[in-house]
User: Fold these one by one.
Assistant:
Number 1:
Amino acid sequence: MPVAIARPRTLYDKIWDDHVVDVKEDGLALLYIDRHLVHEVTSPQAFEGLRNAGRSVRRPDCTLATVDHNVPTVSRKNFASVSTFIDEPDSRAQCQALEENVKEFGVTYFGMKDRRQGIVHIIGPEQGFTLPGITCVCGDSHTSTHGAFGSLAFGIGTSEVEHVLATQTLLQKKGKNMRISVDGELPEGVTSKDVILHIIGVIGTAGGTGSVIEYAGSVFRGFSMEARMSVCNMSIEAGARAGMVAPDDVTFNYIRNRPLAPKGEAWDQALAYWKTLHSDEGAQFDAEINIRAEDIIPTVTWGTSPQDVAPITGTVPDPAQFADSVKRASVERSLKYMGLTPNIRLEDITLDKVFIGSCTNSRIEDLRSAARIVLAAGPDAKVAPNVQAMIVPGSGLIKQHAEAEGLDVIFKRAGFDWREAGCSMCLGMNPDQLAPGERCASTSNRNFEGRQGAGGRTHLVSPAMAAAAAMTGKLTDVRKFLGAAATAGTKMKTSSGFEFLTDAVLPSPAPETPAPQSAADMPPAETPSSVQKFIVVSGITAPLYMENVDTDMIIPKQFLKTLKRTGLGNALFHTLRRNPATGEETDFILNRAPYSKAKIIVCTGENFGCGSSREHALWSFNDFGVRTIIAPSFAEIFRSNAMQNGMLPVVLSKEECKELAEDAAAGVELAVDLEKEEVRRSNGKPAIAFKADPFRRHCLLNGLDDIALTLQKASAIESFEERRSATWPWLDGFGYKGRKISVGPARTSKMDW
Ligand SMILES: CC(C)[C@H](C(=O)O)[C@@H](O)C(=O)O
Ligand code: SF4
């Protein structure tokens, strides 16, 4: 376990070193996963895979599930069951599938009747499931949120969800260390959301690619856990695999006494370990960014990428200012989509909707900060008549806590809609959506085209800025309300919220005690692989001249409701291929002959596949017939999802991509040869060499399935678990009565601890 390594290490190095079960010569490690969060969108196909292979959930004690993306946020007063409550058939089916799967596989589940239900990234920390020093994953890109506790937390695709359920491990290559320090005094009115939006503006949406970001400096040290979570949450928007803040007293005080936090002696032991979790003096970072707190002012996005930020005092940019043609085209496209004219003042932009919620900003502190602004607007002030504003607490417990503080009254009196917990209008997989053309100030994390509803326009802001916008009906500099907000703040009563977390909330049935699973009990490793071999793929190649092609664009949310991996070919680039108003085919490249039969895509812009972890993006390419994509860079989760599906992401330089795109536009066919690691062209021009990761190349050439490979290491996993129980006993999951939950499959046991 903790090995004495002399060189100074970063926080990331330490957590990484402590979780390696096995490592290959090329650095590919089998990493043990301490905590696995599960939601209804990215898990059905994973449970189905387990079922088909006769596998069980290896560590139900370290797995926690809830429903969030699909749930309607209307009152649950009349809730009887998911079957009667959720009208939309596909949303209903996904929630029902999770309910059946957690029962069958014995996973703890917070359903819609449970006040602990909420957004997956809210409930983990709230329950003390998220702890410092752990590895934490979820089939969701915003898993980076949990890094706020000094853990290594990252999003994965559905195939990896299945891998973790079956083996409690993941195959991972170590990323780079990046440190972003923000020091100094934040000006008044500037919040954690402004800080992270500013950071993304500085480093760009691909700035963190390949790295784990450690947030350091006096500003983060001074932040509450809620504020740290908002920052780490959006690390994925900066392209990073994960973000983290070293744990300190703020962290420990937040965790102490939470239902699943270690108690008594285990607490003392855990605390001693957690205090070692910081980057050592002299530890090496591959990249360092320093930002002055004084340079940050309330920030808002104007475009369709989270890097499209500007201070609220600024104006909408003019595409003419951009020398780079790809960049200029992308700004033009954004402004057209957003319905904005260059050079207008941001504060002159009027709104239709305001959304306060999402895993970025739906915690108690966010709601308080919004309420303070509402109060500051005056005792009788109302939401502007042109605006419809909604507040969606992140969990049932946050809702209860806010109501105990009277925040709901403040909001409702001013005309806000006060809702039940869920992802809501962050991505609109449920009824909360923007209508085409509607403009929204939103506290969520993504402003991609169509994100909050087809044709909807999103401006990302902090909760305080959202509240200010709701009251004025326009994007507004929150600092105009500050004096009054300070007075309002003194009138608000706050409470710790701990009383809602006790066991008394809901009775927890005594856990069943299935026998621990040993290597000998594990199903055979040689279950047939379903991964397609990739040797050479050749054929029609479609050129794409775009940067930051995000997964919301590749496959919009309405297609994520499937329980299958197939049949998604028509969904590929749906909003670009179909006119949203008429449903008719557009002239998008993939609708045009010969490209409608493309097997290869070549994209000229960076950061292909950024955004969500939805593996559906790859399933839709596959179903369309595309097996390989060539681009200057890929978002990490997309890249790893591709290879889990027998598909190959090929990285070439920008110039090479441009050259190949020109060839493809002229009808030249390409052949991507993984064996020879080269791209050949039908016009006889010289082949272009590329490099594939040796292990992944081997797997793709042979159609090997990661789970089967990992199961060959069953005894190494088992001995790691023995050492883990001895060294970090608090990581063997605790139940709601402080009892340890037994390890092992519980296919027939009831849900809940
Ligand atoms: C549905 C899920 C895969 C997705 C994610 O990975 O982020 C969603 O939470 C989102 O925010 O787009
Ligand atoms: S980003 Fe939005 S949709 Fe995704 S998990 Fe968070 S709240 Fe849910």
Number 2:
Amino acid sequence: MATQGQVITCRAAVAWEANKPLVIEEVQVAPPQAGEVRVKILFTALCHTDAYTWSGKDPEGLFPCILGHEAAGIVESVGEGVTEVQPGDHVIPCYQAECRECKFCKSGKTNLCGKVRAATGVGVMMNDRKSRFSINGKPIYHFMGTSTFSQYTVVHDVSVAKIDPKAPLEKVCLLGCGVPTGLGAVWNTAKVEAGSIVAIFGLGTVGLAVAEGAKAASASRIIGIDIDSNKFDRAKDFGVTEFVNPKDHDKPIQQVLVDLTDGGVDYSFECIGNVSVMRAALECCHKGWGTSVIVGVAASGQEISTRPFQLVTGRVWKGTAFGGFKSRSQVPMLVDKYMKKEIKVDEYITHNLTLPEMNKAFDLLHEGSCLRCVLDMQV
Ligand SMILES: NC(=O)c1ccc[n+]([C@@H]2O[C@H](COP(=O)([O-])OP(=O)(O)OC[C@H]3O[C@@H](n4cnc5c(N)ncnc54)[C@H](O)[C@@H]3O)[C@@H](O)[C@H]2O)c1
Ligand SMILES: N[C@@H](CCC(=O)N[C@@H](CSCO)C(=O)NCC(=O)O)C(=O)O
Ligand SMILES: [Zn+2]
Ligand SMILES: [Zn+2]
């Protein structure tokens, strides 16, 4: 292959500073080193976590960087020792790695992986603790080990899932983050049983995927809570059976839900990233067994609180990263489920744009009508 072993110059959306519009730049992407994979990104979506880091509120946010972590593409070349993927393979980059060898991977108790996390958290690759991206010699940081807002990116081999080549990349890119997170929060983290009463705070992509997962788990009532009543109509298609807008009530929302459900819900999910709502989500759970799962990402400096009595009396507070799915093993399975029409993906895509329209895509994220915006990266 002509580009193998060569530096590739391509376009990427570079975040030079927090909160400043991204700039489409020509970037140099170095060849993959040992244990690394260079991927041609065909499609990427935007997730609220990209906007969160761009806002400057992420303690791990480093600038200048190339954001993006919900994408699909084709392997261009691989570094020494890479055996599980080869050029031409269709892949989804995975911000949560899976090495199958570390203490975390071996534990069977978590989907977190420790192999490359220290490097991905500071925007570099493990091998030499350097970035593979540069502009005229100036290094540009990686983000979440994925940096999919570039036409080419370099990822660790433990951070890439090989998928069915027949799967449409412009759709399955969503399986890199938001949709699996919601489904897995229900199936893996909470393990919702049939007949359960579920409350979902926040009806964006993640909350709707929670609803989809809860419906598949045969929850008896799926209560959607959002401050934007326009969210309610669409949410019905994902399985939400009842709606509550906290703005319509004088009582605290946890009390409203306790009253609505004869003592509280069996499971609640916070899909916003608001620490006050996290408290409400815990406190609307049923005494003795109700479990609340934190999915939303809260800004640096934010802390959660409740009366310890809430936990003493049997409520359980949990959190989830990527819905508890083991990325390399289970993303291909989710792609297969999509191909068999067992899970929705297309329904979450409300907008399609191109790489040069990246800033417009960020603007759309703040509009209520937008779930996921997919960017064609090769335009
Ligand atoms: N844990 C993980 O692995 C993981 C993965 C993906 C995303 N996330 C996080 O999940 C969160 C949700 O992501 P999303 O893409 O669905 O976001 P989103 O912005 O599309 O959805 C959030 C929803 O919450 C609603 N909302 C805001 N404030 C509210 C309030 N006080 N009460 C009720 N509703 C309120 C909004 O109207 C919106 O509908 C984000 O914080 C994101 O960073 C976490
Ligand atoms: N860097 C942030 C934390 C961000 C965070 O919690 N990320 C989630 C995924 S959000 C995807 O949209 C996650 O999986 N975290 C686990 C991990 O990063 O290993 C901060 O420091 O606040
Ligand atoms: Zn995400
Ligand atoms: Zn591992």
